[in-house]
Amino acid sequence: MERPEFSWDLARASWPALLEGLKITVELTFIVIAISLVLGIFVALGRLSKNRLLSTVVGFYVDFMRATPLLLQLIYIYFVLPTVGIRLDPFVAAVLGLSLNYSAYLSEVYRSGIQAIPRGQLDAAAALGMRPSLTMRRIVLPQAIRIVIPTLGNYFVALFKDTSLASFLTLQELLFSGQIIISRTYDYFTIYTMVLFMYFLVGYPSLILVRYLEKMTKNGYGRRRRAVSLPADQAILNEPAG
Question: Which one, 75, 153, 196, 214, has the greatest CB density within 10 A?
Fold first, then answer.
């Protein structure tokens, strides 16, 4: 069996097409994460609603999305919906499928962040006469979002990789662009190596950013805890002996 060799000539010739595919991948990632970040909040609030019907319906949506494969969801939207007269462009179908899926997952992240807020803060807001909607907007959500920022960052990186599934919808993102070139050249080693490198070129800096955000978040909480505990410590030190 011949040892595969990296073809620099093919790499230079394929670079523009792969770069165009990478642009579509990045564009798809940012559009989907923007939609999911916003929609996920509303899904989380629906899940926490005291309205049992709304909570049940939203809960079923979240469970359905989490219990079925993302790839199958994308295939269903692009290949099955046309049988009932709903035809979508590959890019639109990818945005819709990925947004529905990631909104469900991010809603659970938001929900955990909201539930992590101490109940005493809600009681204090109610004692001050704040409406529940105002309490959620001014007190709960800002803190909850701060708590879940590192997790949201990890989902952003995961989404960047999951956009490769859109290749099954014939969307010419990075992976599918590589597959098109391979169908003409049969050079799997060179093209897939380039595709792998380009994913890493974008994904790795994103991971570094997520780690930085996680570190900054932890440092912020540490400073807040010290600021809150300092008066109590001073009170103990200043308390008369005996």
Answer: 153
